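Quick one: structure for this chain?
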Amino acid sequence: MTASILGIGTAVPATRLRQGDVRDLLAEQPAIDRRARRLLGAAFDAAAIDTRYTVLGELGGGDASGLKLRDGTPVLRVPSTGERNAEYRRTVPALFAAAARDALARSGVDPSEVTHVITVSCTGMFAPGPDYLLVRDLGLSPATERYHLGFIGCAAAIPGLRAAARIAAAQPDAVVLVVCAELCSLHIRSSNDPEQIVAASVFADGAAAAVVSADPARHVGRRLDLDGFGTRLTEDGEKDMVWTVGDEGFEMTLTAQVPRIIGREIEAVALDLFGGTAAVDAWAVHPGGRSILDRVEDGLDLDPSALAHSRDVLREYGNMSSATILFVLRRMMEHDRREGERLAVLAFGPGLTIEAARMSVRGVEAPVEAVRDLVAGATGR
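Got it. Here's what it folds into:
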């Protein structure tokens, strides 16, 4: 039996940032030198991002309700890792729950029907973790099986979906809830380091969830069949995309080599994992940054419109790490799709790792309103 994504939900924090405002805030810090100010302007202006979201109200000019970024002066504090992680623990559960509720509602699935939960995050950690809290906050069965994928980075949603598909194949009546939530802005810092400047110019906060099942009774509306998965380690790049825990927050290394490595290897990867570009009708690519999307487009010789949804998500939300690819897939499903259309899904993480999925569009002809009625009838609700 083929497992399918029945619905995708998303959630973002309340504070919306304008890219230029964050650029100016960091450029005004007294410790920033002249060279770094030039780099800030170039990196932020070239990022192809208009807006992002954050749990840190102070970054958007509001009041501090949790982690304090200032001590009564314009100068940004440097919170400890413990302070940043405490804010993650305080604020991330609501985003996990909001995205999950949205996905369940869009799938026509009642929380009581969820059998497995997979949570994904790399921007904080605590125990009992977000998997435990979802069971409690959504009112799931206390017998719900729980798994957490941590510190895999931007590519982690695809391993989460892969695990869900494996569970559904082994247990066809399973309903698996996959939820990704990332608070990248907790680790923002004022720095003269070019790599930290690039990271500050792209990363943002957000959450997304998918409901996965292989139960034929649930395959009654528009869905994405999970046809296959693949993963590849590039020949180099181990030191070019790195996510480590420091004393003053998690530290991202993101060198200029990352887009170049992806651009160099993406054609061979696409041939190996998808059978080449001719076997793909549409592309869902993680928008790790504008230059990454440019390199994928050039390396695969794609039409400029092929990555439009990825670029739109980047422009409106920035890079929300693991959650971002689900934002892209949701946007694609909300637009016109053809029955049987073949989707190639790509995401990139530390290593340098390329995670991929093959999906196909099903149930296009079913109206959204009818889907909920059919699901309710199939499940006796």
